[in-house]
Design goal:
55% helix; mainly alpha; elongated; 0% strand
Length: 108
Amino acid sequence: MWPTGGDTRRPLAPRIAAPHEPVDPARIGRRVVRRRAKGMDVGAVAAALEDARFDARQDLLHEDLADDVRGRAEHAEWERITQLLAAEAAAAATWDDLRGGRIEEGTA
């Protein structure tokens, strides 16, 4: 049974979509790579970089994928993570160890 409230109904709120920031495929690609790189050591990151390079070569063969912004951003992020791990290989063993302020303040 509905509670009695008389004529104190509230008008329906207008269903206007709130403005949001546009989708940035490059940002999504970088975020996906960072999430995937969690817990990876140098060897796993190198293998992922090789996969990204293969995907980049394959994208060049297809016209619809040749201008894929997300794929290029993912490849660049794997390159960056590989360089950071190689530079810090003696001090840290995994990507999680390097996820400090210096890496996070990069291209976010």
